[in-house]
## 1
Amino acid sequence: MTPRFDAIGLVVGDMAASVAFYRRLGFVFPEDAGRQPHTEAALPGGTRLLLDTEETVLSFHPSWRAPSGGGRAALALLCDGPEEVDAVYEDLVAAGYHGELKPWDAFWGQRYAVVHDPDGNGVDLFAPSGSAS
């Protein structure tokens, strides 16, 4: 028996806000997802993004507590090119989401930026830059 990677799960404070954020990035959730305690979006390759409200997690794990301080995990989204990194970052920041790291040409050869979802999880936006800075 060998476990297989199947899904990424996030615990969210406000399901509607989280669904709106991830939909803006192209994730496809069921129509009523923002009103549900659990929802899923299928990802390329067969994995899934799972969102559960804090209340849902507490219903089966009563001692669970939301983490405090900085996050230790991030979702990384490959963009079609450096221009898309910039455009997606600007779109999200203009919509009121926190821009943690403005787009820049990273020394490892990527155009790279970080935004936070409504719960403060990092979402990395990247594409090959074709140059180093």
## 2
Amino acid sequence: MENEGVLTEILSMIEKEFYDCFRVDAMITKAIPTAKQRISALLNSGYSKIVGNALVSFNDYYLISRAAVQEV
């Protein structure tokens, strides 16, 4: 069973190096609606749910950008 606190800690560790290691400015991840602990950890870590993309279906995906992390 997933634990929100543990997931939040993992997300925090990933964000510290991910952007530079992979030379990206944003990250996306999927969390199905029944993954309540995961969704809560993502939202509490600054991720936003992706909505309304006409070209590619991003149902149940969450996004965070380097800029959003720097603002926190």
## 3
Amino acid sequence: MNLHRVTNVLAVLLGLACLWFGFNFTFTPEAAATGFGIPSWPEGDAAGYFGVKAARDFANGAIVLTLLALGKRRPLAWVMLLMAIVPFGDCLSVLSHGGGYAAALGIHAATGVVVLLTAGLLFATSRDEAGTGSTAAREGNRTRVRSTV
């Protein structure tokens, strides 16, 4: 399996994981919250934050999968780079609200590292594509200019 395919697989898995988290926090928020890593969760009106998390995860997953489906690997690389803020922010939230290091580092920080790795791979594999495409376009323009002169 070449690097381009590995990168695609990672991006798809991350996008699907975001959608899965969104579904979980929408339909089974208490169960989903248990796996997040913060021991005491909001109740009553404060539990509305589960919907906020679900919407964030749905949007992130949809953005990743849409950009990948459209073949926009370079913009996806930038989006993934910025989206790494989310799991690292979640890691800090877990640590600052009484959660364990295992959940903070093993779930959230590790996810952040995978997102950063995927962004780097997307940059690396899209650079080759961008260079090939722009070179071909320039070559084509030169050929047309030469043929008309």
